[in-house]
Write a structure and sequence with these properties.
The protein is of the alpha+beta class and 101 residues long. The chain has three helices and five strands, in the order βααβββαβ. Helix 2 packs parallel to helix 3.
Length: 101
């Protein structure tokens, strides 16, 4: 696998034991992972990957998405925000919506 240009990390609130527990998980971040994977495939985006993370300790802003390696953090992620992030990636731009400064 080549290094992706964008790797989206979605907080899954997983604990060290692997247990899914917490704010992001309770706000359907796991379903958001599936949605993001489907959108990447549907859009045939190359160089874009998505993964679930353990707890990112930003619960009051969750679900949180990180666009790596740019280091852009997004709060209160939902399907609409994922669409906006992927649109921006396709256009070579930065999504400004819900961007954590």
């Amino acid at each position: 696998m080549d290094k992706p240009e964008h790797h989206l990390f979605i907080c899954g609130s997983a604990r060290a034991t692997g247990e899914l527990k917490g704010v992001c998980c309770n706000k359907d971040s796991v379903a958001l992972l599936s949605y993001t994977q489907s959108e990447i495939q549907d859009r045939m985006l190359s160089g874009v990957e998505v993964s679930m993370t353990g707890c990112l300790n930003m619960c009051n802003q969750g679900p949180v998405v990180i666009d790596y390696p740019g280091g852009h953090y997004y709060s209160k992620a939902d399907e609409d925000l994922i669409d906006d992030i992927l649109d921006a990636i396709e256009e070579g731009e930065l999504c400004e919506r819900n961007l954590i400064a």
